[in-house]
Structure formats: structure tokens, C-alpha cells
Design goal:
The structure holds 2 protein chains of 2 kinds.
Chain A: E1 7-16, E2 19-29, E3 34-38, H1 45-51, E4 60-65, E5 70-72, H2 79-88, E6 89-92, H3 104-115, H4 120-133, H5 149-161, E7 167-171, H6 179-194, E8 199-202, H7 206-212, E9 215-220, E10 223-228, H8 230-235, H9 240-250
Parallel strand pairs in A: 3-8, 3-9, 6-7, 7-8
Antiparallel strand pairs in A: 1-2, 1-4, 4-5, 9-10
Helix pairs in contact in A: 3-4, 3-5, 5-6
Chain B: H1 3-44, H2 48-63, H3 66-76, H4 86-112, H5 115-123, H6 128-158, H7 170-181, H8 184-216
Helix pairs in contact in B: 1-2, 1-4, 1-6, 1-7, 1-8, 2-4, 3-4, 4-6, 5-6, 6-8, 7-8
Classes of the chains: A alpha/beta, B mainly alpha.
Magnesium ion is lined by residues 45-46, 172 of chain A.
Chain lengths: 254, 217
């Protein structure tokens, strides 16, 4: 794997007021790789993920995306670079954020048709193909509120896929779901990983991270406290903090 | 009660309503809404000067009586050489007025759309302006319907003030017939009844519209 990474973030820093949420985070993602971000609440996982597509503008650090911009956040970022950055990735949100006034198929086609100027028929064909793959073809004309949480989240994934992004970003896509609906979403994500999509996933689903991720980053207090292959990090963590965190998640009643 | 007079004056009054009151309200409301959207966006602008302009406008409109605004335009402007006819004066004054009140409604509606909707727009590649147009405003419009309907119903009643700057609306017709026959009570009660019917019909339409939109979102 000497290939240049798809994304390389260096020294990402971000403060909200005088609360320093990210204190120099490095992250590299190679093409086809799945990186999982885990860590306690408030450790900066969401902020880091949102920094990768410019929803959050870090105060310092650099971000290079193959086929996209090279950004130095310590300087003002021109709008053109922000757009170029957004174009390389698509995000699946914790609360799906589907457009409530549009049907499923309209949600999926909105980006391709309105922004990418894909002809309607082609966009619709692709949208239906993607919806079919997550088992929601027959929901094409439903409104988001008519779907279950798991179905909504799968539409959210399809909306992201329809943009054909180089990089898929997931922010705890299952943490707002009823437990019995988590599986259907994780299954879709696992299939995407197997198909070779490049993904950065913030998650509390350690089993999923272990099965799917190529690399796991444990974020704590705005720094990467430990990183490694899941087999190593989950079974034999080097850091005391990692061990405590894993213990709290795996044995919450102790 | 002089029922013959009621019957004789009914059509002139109704005609005044259909050719004066209603068109005046509709045209002013349409222009006022466009203005309100602009003012709401000014108020939401991140540039403090721009947002201050929007706030100042709303403050002036809401802090001064509508009748005074009408008189400034119709009787005041000619003294500095700007003569505006009754109808245009009325439309200008009512549009500016709706612009001030509806701006606050639209602004609140835009703010009520969750932040995540903006972000979802950005994530599918849209600019700020396109997200506003395609994602935010359609949702804000639904939230705005009930309060804007109220604004419109108030406007229908407020247009009676235009009779004071010589617009031939329903109330001016009533005034004319009343002073001619000296039957003030009959004519003004009749006008009141007609306004009430207009507003009741509009409230009914408002209910139906709201129920329809509820199914939507
Ligand atoms: N827009 C913001 N304004 C102010 N503070 C913020 C903002 N966004 C995040 N924070 C703060 O930054 C810290 C890190 O937030 P972040 O959402 O990145 O954590 P997280 O690791 O994703 O946590 P969780 O597991 O609870 O989602 C938190 O203390 C949060 O309150
Ligand atoms: Mg988070």
C-alpha cells in the first residue's frame, strides 16, 4: 500500500469558544479502506468527521484530498475549495436529515439532478438501482415520515451513494435507531465496505468496527489516544485509556 | 331597520368589496410577501449592516400606525412634489406594511427549519442560495401558512382605511350611501356584516389549507 492516500489530514485543531475540541488530529484514509472513529462522548469524533467535508472549518491543520483540494485551515479557505472538498465526499447523518417535503426518490435525485446536472432519466435509473440494492425500491414515492427509522437511514445512505463520492462519511448512523433496526443499516454498510467504498465511520458499534474496519482510531479529549488494526486495538490495547473505554462499553454494569 | 335600503345598497357595497377591498388586499399581499422575503433574508444576513437595515425596516413599519403610513404617502408626499394617486398610494402603504409584519413570520419560519436540513443540502452539493430555495423555503412556507393567513385576514379588514385616502372600496361605498341617506347605522352595520362574511370565508379556506399541509409534513 504505497499508493498515495485518498485523504490526508494533518494536525487538525478546532475550538468552540475557549473549549479546544480537536487538539491536533492526524488521519489518513487509503482508497477502499474503512476507518472507524471511536471514543467517549465529547471526544471530538463528530467534529473531526465534519472537518473532513468542510461542514466544520478547523482553526488549523491541513487536508489533502486526491482529486480535490489541498487546504490549509490556518488561512481563510476560499469558497471554491470548500465546494471542491464537499464534492469529494458525502455524509450520512445520525438523524438522517432527509428532506421531509420530498419523496424518497426525490431525496435521492436532488443532488445528482440539481447540482451535478445529471439528466433526469439517468438519475432516476441510478436512484432506483441503488434503492433496489438496499431493498427500498417499492418505497420510491413514500415520504420520509412514512418510513421506519432503519428505512430512513438506508435512504440516507442511498442519497449519499447517488452522489458517487470518493469518500463516504458516517456519523453514528445507527445510534438514533431502535435496537432491532440497527442490523439492517449495519448490513448495508458492511456490504458497501466489501464493495470497496472508502469510508470513515464514527460509531459505538464495536462489533461492527471490528468486523469491517481496516483501522480504528480511538479519540479521547481531542487527540488520537491510540490507533491500530481492530484485531490489535480491541483485543490488546496499548493504552490504559483505551482499555478503560472498551471496558465501559463492553461491561457497562461493572 | 330599513330593509329596502339594505337590499338596495347590498350590490353597490358588494361591488365595492369585489372591485376595491379584495383586489387591494390581494395585490398588496402579493407584493408585500415578496418584500417580506427580502426583508427576512436581510435580517438573517451575517453582515451586521445588512441585518440592521432589515431590523430598522421592521421596526419602523411595526412601530407606526398604518393610517399614519397611508397619510404620509398620500397627503405627505405631494408636499415635496411627489403626487401618488389613491390606488397606488394604498397599494404602496399596504405592501410596505405586510412586508414588515410578514418578514418576521418568514424569518421565524426559516429559523424553525433544523440546521441539519442546511447541512444535508450542502452535503448533496448545493450552495447556500440553492439550499435556501430548494430545501429551506419549501419547509418554511408550510410553517408560515397559518400566521400568514392571519396577516392576510387582518389586511382585508385594514384595507377599509384606504377609504380615507379616497379609494373606492367597500367601506367608502358605505360612507357615500350613508351620508346621502343619513342612515349611518344601517350602512355601517351592513358593511360590517360583509367584512365578517369575507373574513369567515377566508378563515374557512385557511382551515382547509392548513389541514391539507398537515398531511404533507
Ligand atoms: N457547534 C458547536 N458549538 C459549541 N460547542 C460544540 C459545537 N459542536 C460541538 N461542540 C462541543 O465539542 C465537543 C466535542 O463534540 P463532538 O460532537 O465532536 O463530540 P463526539 O465525540 O461526537 O461526541 P458524541 O459521542 O456525544 O457524539 C463537545 O463538548 C461539544 O459540546
Ligand atoms: Mg458525535
Amino acid at each position: 500500500m504505497s499508493e498515495q492516500p485518498l485523504l490526508r489530514a494533518r494536525g487538525i485543531r478546532k475550538s468552540f469558544g475557549d473549549h479546544e475540541v480537536l487538539r491536533g488530529v492526524d488521519l489518513e484514509v487509503r482508497r477502499g479502506e474503512v476507518v472507524a472513529l471511536i471514543g467517549p462522548s465529547g471526544s471530538g469524533k463528530t467534529t473531526m468527521l465534519r472537518s473532513l467535508n468542510g461542514l466544520e472549518m478547523p482553526d488549523a491543520g491541513t487536508l489533502e484530498v486526491t482529486g480535490g483540494p489541498s487546504i490549509d485551515f490556518s488561512r481563510p479557505v476560499p469558497n471554491a475549495q470548500r465546494f471542491a472538498l464537499r464534492d469529494r465526499s458525502a455524509m450520512v447523518f445520525q438523524h438522517h436529515n432527509l428532506f421531509p417535503h420530498m419523496t424518497v426518490i426525490q431525496n435521492v435525485m436532488e443532488g445528482p439532478v440539481q447540482v451535478r446536472r445529471v439528466p433526469r432519466a439517468a438519475a432516476e435509473g441510478r436512484a432506483m438501482e441503488l434503492l433496489g440494492r438496499v431493498g427500498l425500491a417499492e418505497k420510491r414515492d413514500a415520504y420520509p415520515r412514512e418510513l421506519s427509522g432503519g428505512q430512513q437511514q438506508r435512504v440516507g445512505i442511498v442519497r449519499a451513494l447517488a452522489l458517487s463520492p470518493a469518500l463516504l462519511l458516517f456519523d453514528e448512523p445507527t445510534s438514533a435507531l431502535d435496537p432491532e433496526l440497527v442490523g439492517e443499516v449495519l448490513t448495508v454498510m458492511k456490504e458497501l465496505a466489501e464493495e470497496g467504498w472508502t469510508m470513515v465511520v464514527v460509531t459505538h458499534e464495536l462489533q461492527f468496527a471490528r468486523a469491517v474496519a481496516d483501522e480504528v482510531l480511538f479519540l479521547d479529549g481531542g487527540v488520537v489516544a491510540e490507533r491500530g488494526a481492530p484485531a490489535q486495538l480491541f483485543t490488546n490495547p496499548r493504552e490504559q485509556r483505551t482499555r478503560q473505554f472498551l471496558h465501559r462499553i463492553l461491561h457497562p454494569l461493572d | 331597520m330599513d330593509w329596502q335600503l339594505v337590499a338596495d345598497s347590498f350590490w353597490p357595497l358588494l361591488r365595492g368589496g369585489l372591485t376595491g377591498t379584495i383586489p387591494l388586499a390581494l395585490v398588496s399581499f402579493a407584493i408585500g410577501l415578496v418584500l417580506a422575503l427580502v426583508v427576512a433574508l436581510l435580517r438573517l444576513a451575517s453582515n451586521p449592516v445588512v441585518s440592521w437595515v432589515g431590523r430598522a425596516y421592521v421596526s419602523i413599519i411595526r412601530g407606526t400606525p398604518l393610517l399614519v403610513q397611508l397619510f404620509v404617502i398620500f397627503y405627505g408626499l405631494p408636499t415635496i412634489g411627489v403626487v401618488v394617486d389613491p390606488w397606488p398610494s394604498a397599494i404602496i402603504a399596504f405592501s410596505l406594511n405586510v412586508g414588515g409584519y410578514a418578514a418576521e413570520v418568514i424569518r421565524a419560519a426559516i429559523l424553525s427549519v433544523p440546521r441539519g436540513q442546511w447541512e444535508a443540502g450542502y452535503v448533496v452539493g448545493m450552495s447556500h442560495a440553492r439550499t435556501l430555495r430548494r430545501i429551506i423555503l419549501p419547509q418554511a412556507a408550510r410553517v408560515s401558512v397559518p400566521p400568514l393567513s392571519n396577516t392576510f385576514i387582518s389586511l382585508v379588514k385594514d384595507t377599509s382605511l384606504a377609504s380615507l385616502i379616497l379609494v373606492t372600496d367597500m367601506f367608502r361605498k358605505a360612507q357615500e350611501i350613508a351620508s346621502f341617506t343619513s342612515e349611518f347605522m344601517v350602512l355601517y352595520l351592513e358593511a360590517a356584516a360583509l367584512y365578517w362574511i369575507f373574513c369567515t370565508v377566508l378563515s374557512f379556506g385557511q382551515d382547509r389549507l392548513e389541514r391539507k399541509l398537515e398531511q404533507y409534513v
